[in-house]
Amino acid sequence: MGQKKLIKFAAIKEYENVLEYPQGMPGKWNAFFQELAKGTNNISLDDLAISQKAINTTPSAAEITKPLVLELACGRGEYAVGLARMYANQNFVGLDLKGNRIWKGASIANRDGLKHVAFVRTQIDQVTQYFSKDEVSEIWITFPDPQLRLSKAKKRLTHPKFLRLYQQFLQPGGIVHLKTDSPNLYLFTKTVIELFGLTLITSTDDLYSTAFMQSDKWDDRYAIKTYYEGLNIASSNRIHYIQFKLDKELPVELDEKLKELITAFEVTETHESLARNGKQAME
Ligand SMILES: C[S@@+](CC[C@H](N)C(=O)[O-])C[C@H]1O[C@@H](n2cnc3c(N)ncnc32)[C@H](O)[C@@H]1O
Question: What's the predicted TM-score (pTM) here?
């Protein structure tokens, strides 16, 4: 492993705003961010209070639970940090496996005194271990690997398999945002939304088109740019964006139907793209 990576891995071990595979965090994020804001060193996760929903009482300042926004596959955490700059009254968590990428966002948050953003280093498959029921108010999924091979479709972060995980901690009717340069992942996600009857709020296959930017659908949060956004790996030259609500049951029985739909769709895509390139589609 390179020297630079080792330095970054050592640095995040000392950062209060990075938690690597933390144990016992569900329900404790509000208390964690209160300690982070106080500048507490070596925050003891075991001692953090679990948030309780106040019933028929006016909560004191210490009890007020701020909305918690989660960025999945955050990489350097541009959304977690960018949104934290825009919203002082919400807390933000970026989650990624790669410590050297998290280091970037965590270092910027430390440098700029942003005490309401933190990072978790872990596998997304394990995400339910870190949040309690209804603890998260919104999820951003930013330029995840589109997992283009059909055999990898279950690894797409908007596959119902993952949406069922998010439902375990997202507030009822909570919103999911997907930003991607992959037309395939965009169409796949729209297919999932339609098949499971989820509420689609906004979708565009050209986020930065003048028409969309000048429409009443535009929101300044969309302008936050990520590292992978700049790479244009899918060569689509367009940023695709979907906002939807996870507001329905996701019956496992429909997964087979989804498989059939996307199999047909991926074949069509291949034929169309071959046709666009002036080549004969293979039967
Ligand atoms: C294409 S990058 C996008 C990073 C960032 N959101 C951006 O737009 O620049 C995808 C990110 O997903 C992370 N990732 C992939 N699989 C993961 C998993 N199973 N658990 C956690 N993170 C994962 C990678 O480490 C990588 O940082």
Answer: 0.92
The verdict on whether 46 is a catalytic residue reads no
Contact 215, 177 (CB under 8 A): no
Quote the domain boundaries for residue 253. Answer: 3-276
- Tell me, using a 6 A CB cutoff, whether residue 101 lines ligand 1: yes
What's the CATH code of the domain at 44?
Answer: 3.40.50.150
Each residue's pLDDT tens digit, 78-104? 999 999 999 999 999 999 999 999 999
> Kind and range of the H or E element at 92?
strand 91-96
Count the neighbouring beta carbons within 10 Å of the beta carbon of residue 104.
Answer: 17
Distance CA 133, CA 281 (A): 48
How many domains in the chain? 1
Closest ligand 1 atom number to CA of residue 79: 6
Residue 130 belongs to a domain: yes
Instruction: Summarize pLDDT for 125-140 with one digit per residue, the tens.
Output: 999 999 999 999 999 9
Show the DSSP H helices in 197-251 as ranges: 210-213, 227-231
Distance 280 CA to ligand 1 centre (A): 36
Looking at ligand 1, which atom is closest to the CA of residue 231? 9
